[in-house]
Write a structure and sequence with these properties.
This protein is of the alpha/beta class. The chain has helices at 5-14, 22-34, 37-53, 70-74, 86-93, 122-126, 143-156, 181-189, and strands spanning 55-56, 63-64, 79-83, 101-104, 134-137, 162-165, 192-193. Helix 1 packs across helix 2 (22-34). Bound molecules: zinc ion (ZN).
Length: 194
């Protein structure tokens, strides 16, 4: 199907979003063209707002509106839970009982994608271990997640800090952000020491 130029452009932009194929992008484009202009303005402003106001916490790498996120500002940093992405924190925060802080790596080691240890926030993690009693490695249970966890464990264990890995409650290859609360809760509470 051929669209006139401005519509084609909007469809192409929407199609860059995850899980949005051309059909869905076209449906969104038509919905936007038919929506009241105040709704469209609100959407445009919401997008501008997150881009301008939200950035990474300078301590843990989570999203925040401030210099330091609410979690880092209010909790004791004696336990650090290491995750791949900020959205993993959202998933883990639904699990009741965890009252430690987080560290976002913003990626995992993946030689195939040319991502080495120096390309993710491992240096920053090592720099905040003063007074830390336990580091929980909560990267996804896939090949890259396991390799990254093992790499970090090898660096931290010699420092005399307890290093644990979330348990196999998560099915192999499953992604933390999509796991349900019960599964995450079990994975976290039955974590194993490395
Ligand atoms: Zn933070």
């Amino acid at each position: 199907m051929r669209y006139i130029e401005p519509i084609a452009k909007l469809i192409a932009e929407l199609g860059k979003l995850p899980s949005v194929g051309e059909k869905t992008a076209a449906r969104y484009a038509y919905a936007l063209m038919e929506a009241p202009s105040e709704d469209v303005d609100a959407l445009v402003n919401a997008i501008k707002d997150v881009r301008e106001k939200v950035h990474f916490c300078k301590v843990c790498g989570n999203f925040t509106e401030n210099e330091v996120c609410d979690i880092c500002a209010t909790r004791k940093p004696t336990t650090i839970c290491v995750v791949k992405e900020p959205r993993d924190i959202t998933a883990l925060e639904k699990v009741k009982g965890y009252d430690g802080v987080y560290h976002v790596l913003h990626g995992v080691i993946s030689p195939l994608d040319r991502v080495g240890p120096e390309n993710i926030r491992i240096k920053e993690l090592l720099a905040r271990l003063d007074g830390v009693q336990e580091v929980i490695l909560a990267t996804n249970p896939d090949v890259e997640g396991e390799a990254t966890a093992m790499y970090i464990a090898r660096l931290i264990k010699p420092l005399g800090i307890k290093v644990t890995r979330i348990a196999r409650g998560l099915p192999e290859g499953s992604v933390i952000e999509y796991a349900d609360e019960g599964t995450l809760s079990r994975a976290l509470s039955s974590r194993i020491e490395l």
